[in-house]
Design brief:
The chain is an all-alpha fold. The chain contains 14 helices and no strands.
Amino acid sequence: MATLSQGASPWSQRVLTGRNSLLDRYFYFAMSFLIAGLVVWGFSHTVDANLFHAAVPRPLLLWIHGAAFSAWVVFYILQSALVRTRNVRVHRSLGWFGLALGACMVLLGFTIAVIMGHFDIYTLHLPMADTEAFLAIPFYDMLAFGTLLGLAIYWRRKPELHRRLLFLATCSLLDAAFGRVDYIFNNHIFFVFVDSVIALGIVRDLLVNRTIHPVYRYALPVLVVAQTVTTLLWSHPPQSWLSVTHAILS
């Protein structure tokens, strides 16, 4: 009986997998649209009731925060398209705008987490302990995104490192989209879905390069450990963590 590799035509192997294949050339461009679709899908569950037509108007900074994070998704698509069309010079020039935007996002992310935590407790009268414990999630997001973005900028002249780190940085923001789905949020499993998207990058490397790139081998285990600690701080917060967040929000 012929094996799968024997049965597949050389043409299909060359076009779909391996170096210079469709998967090699278009993966990150396609992933930028997948990420955008997931963001739109996730936030469509809550954005109308919690922002556009909220019974209690949200702080203005939340609108700015949403605009900045939406701009990052558009920026990531644009940068992926520029690489795909070989406009590398424009891609590099716009990279400095991306650095400034990313830095603003980190600052906004930390700030809006505190502002909305205070808003939830003192305006919406949500449970104080739950709101305080939840600060672990946005704080982790900003630390992960900021660290990965910083590494991507540092290794900007090494494309194989740069594009994977930017992909990881952008994926690290997806828990905000997945968390808008009640089932995912209530079961504390949005990081599972985030890592599933990241795993597509690993599958791509295996099909194209027949190996897993060191960025995934080193970064993903660190992210999983950090995600686990973050989830425990939220779902089973120790008193020491609640004392810190209470001081921040009070």
